[in-house]
Amino acid sequence: MASSQALNFFVSRNSPFLNTSKPSLASNFGFILKPLLSTSPLILKCSLSSPNLDPLTIPNNGQFSVVSKNGPASDTSAIEVDSVTEAELKENGFRSTRRTKLVCTIGPATCSSEQLEALAVGGMNVARINMCHGTREWHKGVIERVRELNEEKGFAVAIMMDTEGSEIHMGDLGGTSSAKAEDGEVWTFTVRGFNSSCPERTISVNYDGFAEDVKVGDELLVDGGMVRFEVIETIGPDVKCKCTDPGLLLPRANLTFWRDGKLVRERNAMLPTISSKDWLDIDFGIAEGVDFIAVSFVKSAEVINHLKSYIKARARDSDIAVIAKIESIDSLKNLEEIILASDGIMVARGDLGAQIPLEQVPSAQQRIVQLCRQLNTPVIVASQLLESMIEYPTPTRAEVADVSEAVRQRSDALMLSGESAMGQYPEKALTVLRSVSLRIERWWREQKPQEGLDLPNIASSFTDTISEEICNSAAKMANNLGVDAIFVYTKTGHMASLVSRCRPDCPIFAFTSTISVRRRLNLQWGLIPFRLSFSDDMENNLNKTFGLLKARGMIKSGDLVIAVSDMLQSVQVMNVP
Ligand SMILES: Nc1ncnc2c1ncn2[C@@H]1O[C@H](COP(=O)(O)OP(=O)(O)O)[C@@H](O)[C@H]1O
Ligand SMILES: C=C(OP(=O)(O)O)C(=O)O
Ligand SMILES: [K+]
Ligand SMILES: [Mg+2]
């Protein structure tokens, strides 16, 4: 028996283990108990410590009785799905499942196991760690806790690591959480290093060329304009600036400087997209097996291709998806090639709004989201969706409208930043994203607004063209027939993404045999990823899936389903027997 194979044991109902989530009960047999929901079979996993244990030799010590055994996962047994989605599906039915995926940035407000669990239960599909902040040890702890929760509670939360990037930003503010800059005050921005804390009204800057690149009269924007200064004097490494728009300075806030109303790109434009610190963080991410790496301040497709080949060389088995963050003028110029090269895109509105005039951000967002859908690349809309909820328990009407707009544009995912990382109401903010998504998705299905978006043919081979046509037709049929779900059997996830791209009215059950593909699908609109081993025989696959899903109460006889697969190029329509 292989070391990580899962075995399904149906344990009698009166087993004392059915109400426990502690994995230790059977650990003396080298097995881990993993009860899912009370009606589910218990899954016993063979642990690495005793890989050769024969399952039939597990002693029945009187505490539970093994009624039947389904054999190893590679034959017939387990189907894995996120326990939160499973519960949602059972409670409210197919139509009510949320299609828009949710990403939460994890920070001091959400890093404990209890807080992470609350977010997972609240619908977090992806946990994002931002390498701009915190230490690697801190991030490692978060990753471990997420993995533990997935294992113990049946969640399927994926991990996204976001690189710092080499743009200009302020230092740590000597350990304080913020500093207030008042109108007219003179502050010193300096490239000097300080061993102890900075003198008063002094801010360190991470980019050595800063003091030489800025000129008297330049405007210095903190966080894209949250606080503004005017440069009044430069003295060696020190730049003296007068505050013109007061506000709160936050640690490691981004800095841009503007001359005659234009963003100045001096030597900092030559900084590499991936800094040497970023490469170390990327090595860390690969070692930890994160699911996504998001690259900050991408300028062209080249860096994405470079990182993808680096990952391939370093981590042959792992399948880390690379997300390009669109947050610079260059990335907008090279948008199409970047989207084509990347596994996902983030509309990083925070920094984007510091690089282009704010009033251009909404149209840029719309363009990016549409192009991503056309080119079949998942897209996340990020930053300030519910900014006021960092401090207040209810969002502003404008924020709700902003979230609605991103859902209406049919983006794959929405992201919380400060709201979940350091805000006072992380769970409430997530609830707002969830309920607004559900409401707008329902409105969409009821109103069927004219979409006016062509989905061009994107396949690069004839076989791909067939897959694409099958998915387009399946989605159209699903809408016209009002089916309950589309089933897609997919080895690489590609076929599932093609169905998702059509944004059908019903949920999409995506069956895949690898853990990494399953986690990646977490970011894509409408997909409910399942892990299931399947064969090339569709008849067999369907019967097996129906059996397993019926046993879990996730479908019932009579439900209408459309099935497609990338092994057999066909569309099947059938009622669940
Ligand atoms: N790992 C962390 N440790 C401490 N604070 C964090 C961490 N991650 C995020 N934060 C806080 O949450 C805020 C919002 O997060 P995010 O948007 O990801 O970063 P930024 O504001 O730097 O773009 C940050 O400004 C920071 O104050
Ligand atoms: C998501 C963004 O990046 P970060 O939070 O890393 O600055 C952004 O700029 O909007
Ligand atoms: K970042
Ligand atoms: Mg950014």
UniProtKB/TrEMBL annotation:
InterPro entries: Pyr_Knase, Pyrv/PenolPyrv_kinase-like_dom, Pyrv_kinase-like_dom_sf, Pyrv_Knase-like_insert_dom_sf, Pyrv_Knase_AS, Pyrv_Knase_brl, Pyrv_Knase_C, Pyrv_Knase_C_sf
Alphabetically ordered keywords of this record: ATP-binding, Chloroplast, Glycolysis, Kinase, Magnesium, Metal-binding, Nucleotide-binding, Plastid, Potassium, Pyruvate, Transferase, Transit peptide
EC assignment: 2.7.1.40
Amino-acid biosynthesis found in the keyword field: no
NCBIfam families for the chain: pyruv_kin
Domain called Pyruvate kinase C-terminal: residue spans: 468-568
GO CC term (a single one): chloroplast stroma
PANTHER family from the UniProt entry: PYRUVATE KINASE
Domain of life, per lineage: Eukaryota
Organism: Lithospermum erythrorhizon (Purple gromwell)
SUPFAM superfamilies with a match to the protein in the record: Phosphoenolpyruvate/pyruvate domain (SSF51621), PK beta-barrel domain-like (SSF50800), PK C-terminal domain-like (SSF52935)
Gene Ontology terms for molecular function: ATP binding; kinase activity; magnesium ion binding; potassium ion binding; pyruvate kinase activity
Domain called Pyruvate kinase barrel: residue spans: 98-429
Enzyme's top EC category: transferase
Cofactor(s) this protein cannot do without: K(+); Mg(2+)
PROSITE patterns: PYRUVATE_KINASE (PS00110)
Compartments in which it is found: Plastid, Chloroplast
Name listed for the protein in its UniProt record: Pyruvate kinase
Lineage per the UniProt record: Eukaryota, Viridiplantae, Streptophyta, Embryophyta, Tracheophyta
